Amino acid sequence: MSIEKDFIVIGSGVAGLTFALKVCKFGSVGIITKDALEESATKYAQGGIASVMAEDDSFDLHVKDTMETGRGLCHEDFVRIACGEGPARVRELIELGANFDRRGRGTEFDLGKEAGHSKRRILHANDLTGWEIERTLIEAVHAQDNIEIFEHHMAIDLITRARLEENIQPGSDKDEALGLYVLDHQTQKVETIEGRGILMATGGAGKVYLYTSNPDTATGDGIAVAYRAGAKIANMEFFQFHPTCLFHPKAKSFLISETVRGEGGILRLQNGETFMENYHSLGCLAPRDVVARAIDYEMKKSGDDYVLLDATHLEGYRIRERFPNIYKTCLKFGFDMSKEPVPVVPAAHYMCGGLVVDVNGQTNIKRLFASGEVCFSGLHGANRLASNSLLEGLVLSHRAVEKAVALFKDSSSKRVSQAHRIPEWDPGSAVDSDESVVVSHNWDEIRRLMWNYVGIVRSTKRLKRAERRIQLLLEEIQEYYWNFKITKNTLELRNIAITAQLIIQGAMIRKESRGLHFNLDHPEPDDTNWKQDTVFQTTVHSLITQTNPRIVTHE
């Protein structure tokens, strides 16, 4: 027996909760989240949300900053939509109860400045902006009777028309999303959930790399699930590495927000010398791709394991009051950032590619929408402007509601026939695993090969090595998947391997360096041949994936 909901939301960050909160006025909603409801990348976002709120700022300036940072691959239509509609979406958050910092006791927002921004336009709640937004949305969601939350549930695969009807090709015009199979990894039961509108909002895939600022949930689930179903995936080669994560063996790459540099923090080598002025006119406030590559180069040149972020010249109270969480966390690991520089290294931070969507969040599969880090809307291009991520989730989820509701109303007479044809999950002849070490070993190998061969600086030779190994790993994972009963770890391994493969293939195809993708063998941008998106799609009936992603078009 399947669970029936009008709308299904996969993910519980800003994108998923915003959509759920707005669409529940039109029908029942099920939120699928593989951890606790609050556990998402949104929760850990420190810096803030970019929005034009000051009199000396303008939408055109925000658009210009975004486009320049995106290195020619931003889609201007959606950039203008996101920048133009952003303030209205932020004000809705404030009406829900979100408290952003203001100057003194007045009504004027205390706007921050981050790398790549020409004006102060970053709304923040100290250095816990993401948690303030997440808290606000969760409280609003809990107040709704029409939303059911499925915590500790993980999407296995989408159920589409192509999966049920052999004459329909995955991802074609005739295909549409009908529901999904979901693993309750506390009971180990697989449930079938049917819906007439599905939003993929699973976030990013930072865990594909050995070092990341992302939470443990960021395993590329939405990318892999949608790709297996025939969704188009674009620009996976553009993975953003945050330049400044705390270097400490027990810190799990704790992020030190870019706003520390925005307020005057300086990057130094271990000998005390500054270096960013040698790489960009904006120095320490250069775009993230420039700063991350500069740090990587200086570390390799010197042999040092880290560089230093120095904020000691700022007044102590400014550090403690503006960055209370960062200050306390650094202190916990033995660093008083008001008195001494802290060691920092780059770490995988944000996936700029993802599911291809239009300006309303619609993918190429009917009734399947995507919003937030999991999608490619064109806002970020080849490099994301700082604090535009929360903005994208708010704007795109809002726009997706109208389209999803229209499709929902159009399908009101189809539920019975669809439900009758959707089969329950069939585990086949799978048995309990007696060699779980395979999962942990493959997991570790993928993350290390991605860090070593497909990281901040790449080469054709390194990418070929990564390609060969990921194909072998996918074959091993496929065999394991079919032989043994599925678990959360198995599903995450399958997803992270497919996501890694897409990143590798995108990097191999792009014969240039642009934004976040830097190849030593092609060190310059090539606008003639490569000022375009890299799009992949699988069109075969498969629960794993093809061993080699197929590029379908350059858009």
Task: Describe what is shown at a glance.
The protein is an alpha/beta fold and 555 residues long.
What is the name of the CATH topology of the largest domain? FAD/NAD(P)-binding domain
Question: If helices are DSSP runs of H or I spanning 4 or more residues, what is the number of helices?
Answer: 16
Which regions have little confidence, pLDDT < 50, spanning 5+ residues? none
Strand content: 15-25%
Number of domain units: 3
Estimated radius of gyration: 23 Å
CATH class of the largest domain: Alpha Beta
Note down, in words, how this protein is organized:
The chain is built from 16 helices and 20 strands. The protein is of the alpha/beta class and 555 residues long. It has 3 domains: 3-236 and 352-418, FAD/NAD(P)-binding domain; 247-346, Succinate dehydrogenase/fumarate reductase flavoprotein, catalytic domain (Flavocytochrome C3, Chain A, domain 1, Alpha-Beta Complex), CATH 3.90.700.10; 437-549, Methane Monooxygenase Hydroxylase, Chain G, domain 1, CATH 1.20.58. It has a 5-stranded parallel β-sheet, covered by helices on one side. Helix 1 links the parallel strand 2 (7-10) and strand 3 (29-33). It is globular, with a radius of gyration of 23 Å.
Q: What secondary-structure arrangement, pairings included, does this model have?
A:
Blueprint: E1 3-4, E2 7-10, H1 14-23, E3 29-33, E4 49-50, H2 59-69, H3 76-96, E5 122-123, H4 129-142, E6 147-151, E7 153-160, H5 161-164, E8 177-184, E9 189-194, E10 198-200, H6 221-228, E11 233-234, E12 239-246, H7 259-262, E13 266-268, H8 288-302, E14 307-310, H9 316-322, H10 324-332, E15 342-351, E16 354-356, E17 368-370, E18 375-376, H11 389-410, H12 415-421, H13 437-453, H14 460-483, H15 488-509, H16 527-530, E19 535-536, E20 551-553
Parallel strand pairs: 1-9, 2-3, 2-10, 3-6, 10-17, 16-18
Antiparallel strand pairs: 4-5, 7-8, 8-9, 11-16, 11-19, 12-15, 13-14, 14-15, 19-20
Helix pairs in contact: 1-4, 1-11, 2-3, 3-11, 6-15, 9-10, 13-14, 13-15, 14-15
